[in-house]
Amino acid sequence: MNIDLVILILTTLAAIWTVMGRSLLKAAIGLAITSALISVMIFRMNSPLAAVFELSVCAGLITAIFVSTISMTKPLTHKEVLQVSKDRMKRYIYLPVILAIVGAVLIALKLKQDFTIAPLAVAQPDVQTVLWDFRRLDVIGQVIILIAGALGIVILFEEKKTK
Amino acid sequence: MIGFFIVLLLICGAYCLVVTRSMIRAVVGIELLIKAVTLLIILAGQLTGRTALAQSIAITIIIIEVVIAATAAGIALSVFRHTNSLDVRNLRNLKG
Questions:
Q1: What's the pLDDT tens digit per position in A102-140?
Q2: What is the DSSP track for B38-73?
Q3: H or E stretch including B37?
Q4: Residue B33's closest chain A neighbor by CA?
Q5: Domain check: are A34 and A106 in the same one?
Q6: What's the ipTM?
Q7: 3-state secondary structure of B22
Q8: Is the dihedral of CA B16, A110, B39, B53 positive or negative?
Q9: Which CATH number is associated with domain B2-87?
Q10: Contact between B8 and A98 using a beta-carbon 8 Å cutoff
């Protein structure tokens, strides 16, 4: 079996587990696993820099943010967990069914696999050149967004001052 | 083949976003959607031979993704402090 196919199947299963998992902590861990598998897939698609970013930021930093947020909220009692689980199963049971139907339809349609566009004849610049030379304005915008996000987080996570 | 699984990933994220009542799980759904789009852009870059451009765009997406996640988590936390719950239905009481 093709290794790419195995990774993609595992990614889909991890995504389903993320969505259908009972606790929020399991959802956060499932998201991290999905990110790690996607980063492997991106690496195999000749994009190592994006893969490293995906692995370090999405599988690492975002998981840490989620886990810290979950830890700051009140956990449910055992009785509440049972009640919520029953309610959740009713709503989430349709996801595998929908995925199976869509998958069967896509397979039945036999989408054309040979949609490969011919690569450009001109030699392409490397990532650093694209990022720093061609998309310099975008990089400045990203820095501004990061600063705005950091300031927003400081304000939102701020503890209430007790007198 | 990859496109097929990207569609499934998009459905997972969209379904999570539509069905969930927890704010944190809604953010997880958004994250899944963004991951599918990132994978799609890398695939497009590979197909057109512009992997460098696709990588730089993917890096931009990842940076925006982390800001979205952190800000949304902060909002969820502040809502929890006000309502003592992460249920999105509590937000119906907001003015406006």
A1: 888 888 887 655 555 555 656 777 877 887 888 888 888
A2: HHHHHHHHHHHT-HHHHHHHHHHHHHHHHHHHHHHH
A3: helix B23-48
A4: A15
A5: yes
A6: 0.90
A7: strand
A8: negative
A9: 1.10.287.3510
A10: no
